[in-house]
Write a structure and sequence with these properties.
single chain, mainly beta, Pectate Lyase C-like, globular, disordered N terminus
Length: 137
């Protein structure tokens, strides 16, 4: 059975123009849960395959994606880029930061039905379903 060929960066940027030229950014893949007291600081994007528990911290100059529950602190766009996002299967962060904007995930019994994303809109950090992120493009 023939194997599928991976796309090159040039092919990817042409096929998905919403990437805004960010194809070549470094990305750190963390393949574990982050426990209280653990910190990840990275110059680029961070993807966590697991949960980020309260007391854990992720600081990235790029975007942050958590393939699990985000209960700790997440700071995307740490170098000042307010166009960055924080996405997770469940956003229950003790604190969300995007560039110089700071927020907390809303409290209450609202189990999400889809993955969520936090982004800055009109100077405020807002939460939405991940499916809404690029609907306008």
């Amino acid at each position: 059975m023939p194997r599928r060929r991976a796309s090159t960066a040039a092919e990817t940027s042409m096929a998905t123009p919403w990437l805004d030229g960010r194809v070549d950014e470094p990305t750190l893949l963390v393949r574990r849960h982050l426990r209280s007291g653990q910190r990840v600081h990275y110059q680029g994007n961070v993807v966590v395959l697991g949960d980020v528990n309260p007391g854990a911290e992720i600081v990235a100059t790029g975007d942050i994606v958590v393939m699990g529950v985000l209960r700790g602190l997440a700071h995307a766009g740490a170098a000042g880029d307010a166009a960055r996002v924080v996405a997770a299967f469940r956003l229950e962060a003790t604190q969300l930061r995007i560039a110089n904007h700071i927020a907390r995930a809303p409290e209450g019994d609202r189990p999400p039905q889809v993955a969520e994303v936090a982004q800055v809109r009109e100077g405020h950090v807002v939460l939405d379903s991940l499916t809404q992120l690029y609907d306008d493009r």
